Design the sequence.
């Protein structure tokens, strides 16, 4: 039994079932026992791996995409270059290396990382030791001004609430106790907040997930881009208006059940890109959602991959080609992962994206 299992059990015994969102939030970010608060979860030694950890090309291409938008918007002499949920800092390091040659870009950038975990902040500090970096807890605390931002596999780590349509109306999934063990259950009928559009055509048995943190953060990003300019690229796994139970737990590169080892497995849920787009469109323009593979190909991954391959041979070359394939192939991350861009209505969408 993990420490968090004990904490949840005594809390639920005292005051009743908790929402899935409370459960997920504590599992991931409990200051002492939370998953991200206590470890570096990435890479082959960790529980899962992400696109920037698979290949440097991911960050290079996104970095050049942001820099091109910055040039198109008249190269503002001061702007916030932000990443939310930067993990090991690899994506930001690749963005900065790729944009070194873009005249004025680094001088104008106030590098800002939004990171909740102190363990990961330390790793980012080391990785980005050559740069001046500000760490903040929430994007709302970023300096004002044009905002050029990336988020990869950040939104999937935010706590969701889950609602199930029953004969009697919507019930919420909660975590309670059955025979003294943690178990999922359903609340009495509740009023489902937000997502008006999801109430239409709902059928008994439908499951709808709502992530209010994701919409609040997107709202903040889009408001800044609408007011000051900039561009945000959001990449994650999920879909447009995804339906069903998408909560998953991963430990040591394998799926486990979400209640099995709270705080010791990575809990995520698919990102609802429609919900993010609705939040952003109130303030500014949003691109069409496209698959990650399409985005990277439009940004020139094939050419970049060939260039890097020239200096490689044997096992290194093989690994490089495998990594390229993992990022773009439909059977790998190419279609499961999607991307949208948020940008000012007065400009073109960032390279690779369309209106
Ligand atoms: N973008 C990285 C890491 C993704 S993992 C990559 O692609 O490799 C999710 C990241 O988001 C971790 O750095 C985690 O600590 C951070 N995180 C999770 N919830 C957060 C929150 N509410 N606020 C800020 N950071 C958060």
Sequence:
């Amino acid at each position: 039994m993990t420490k968090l299992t004990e904490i949840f059990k005594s809390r639920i015994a005292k005051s009743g079932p908790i929402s899935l969102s409370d459960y997920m939030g504590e599992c991931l970010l409990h200051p002492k026992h939370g998953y991200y608060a206590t470890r570096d979860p990435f890479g082959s030694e960790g529980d899962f791996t992400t696109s920037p950890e698979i290949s440097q090309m991911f960050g290079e291409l996104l970095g050049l995409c942001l820099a091109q938008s910055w040039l198109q918007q008249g190269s503002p002499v001061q702007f916030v270059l932000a990443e939310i949920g930067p993990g090991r800092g690899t994506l930001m390091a690749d963005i900065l290396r790729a944009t070194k040659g873009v005249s004025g870009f680094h001088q104008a950038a106030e590098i800002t990382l939004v990171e909740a975990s102190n363990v990961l902040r330390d790793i980012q500090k080391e990785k980005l030791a050559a740069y001046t970096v500000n760490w903040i807890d929430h994007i709302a605390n970023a300096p004002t001004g044009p905002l050029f931002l990336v988020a990869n596999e950040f939104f999937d780590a935010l706590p969701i609430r889950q609602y199930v349509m029953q004969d009697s109306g919507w019930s919420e999934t909660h975590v309670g106790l059955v025979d003294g063990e943690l178990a999922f259950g359903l609340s009495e009928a509740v009023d489902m907040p937000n997502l008006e559009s999801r109430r239409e055509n709902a059928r008994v048995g439908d499951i709808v997930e709502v992530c209010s943190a994701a919409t609040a953060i997107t709202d903040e990003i889009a408001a800044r881009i609408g007011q000051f300019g900039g561009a945000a690229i959001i990449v994650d796994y999920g879909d447009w208006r995804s339906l069903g139970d998408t909560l998953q737990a991963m430990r040591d590169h394998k799926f486990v059940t979400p209640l099995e080892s709270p705080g010791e497995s990575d809990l995520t849920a698919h990102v609802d890109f429609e919900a993010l787009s609705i939040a952003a469109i109130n303030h500014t323009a949003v691109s069409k959602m496209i698959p990650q593979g399409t985005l990277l190909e439009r940004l020139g991954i094939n050419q970049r991959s060939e260039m890097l391959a020239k200096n490689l041979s044997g096992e290194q070359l093989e690994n490089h080609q495998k990594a390229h394939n993992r990022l773009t192939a439909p059977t790998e991350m190419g279609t499961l992962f999607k991307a949208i861009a948020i940008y000012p209505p007065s400009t073109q969408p960032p390279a690779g994206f369309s209106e």
In short: The chain is about 35% helix and 25% strand. The pocket of S-adenosyl-L-homocysteine is lined by residues 28-29, 36, 42, 50, 52-53, 85-87, 91, 114-117, 120, 152-154, 157 (CB under 6 Å). Residues 56-72 form the longest helix (17 residues). The two ends are 50 Å apart (CA to CA).
